[in-house]
Amino acid sequence: MVFVGEVQGVTTIKFFAYLIQKTGMEETKLNLSGCSTVGDARELISSEFPEIALDLATCMLAVDMTFRQDDELLNEPREVAVIPPVSGG
Q1: Contact in structure between 38 and 71 (CB atoms under 8 Å)
Q2: pLDDT (tens digit, 9 = 90+) per residue, 36-83?
């Protein structure tokens, strides 16, 4: 299903914390239609944003607001959030 105003295969990618400073943006859109797994999406994000390529190895990816592992399949996601490690006190 394609929602009004959306292009099939195009997904909103959201960055958090220091990734915003490194990429210079809070969010962007990427065509993930060639990505079958979360790991494929991670690799595409890494290639599109080489300034965070090393950071991505330790980031969690949330697909449509649910944390996913790299081997899980993508099913036309609307949003992927890239969340770096956090620490608490």
Answers
A1: yes
A2: 999 999 999 999 999 999 999 999 999 999 999 999 999 999 999 999
Q: Distance between CA 46 and CA 66 in Å, rounded?
A: 20
Element spanning 41, H or E:
helix 38-48
Helix (H, G, I), strand (E, B) or coil at 32: coil
The DSSP annotation for 66-81 comes to EEE-TTSBP-S-SEEE
Q: How far apart are CA 83 and CA 18, in angstroms?
A: 10
60-63 β-sheet, strand order: 27-31, 10-15, 79-83, 60-63, 66-68
Report which residue type is found at 62: A
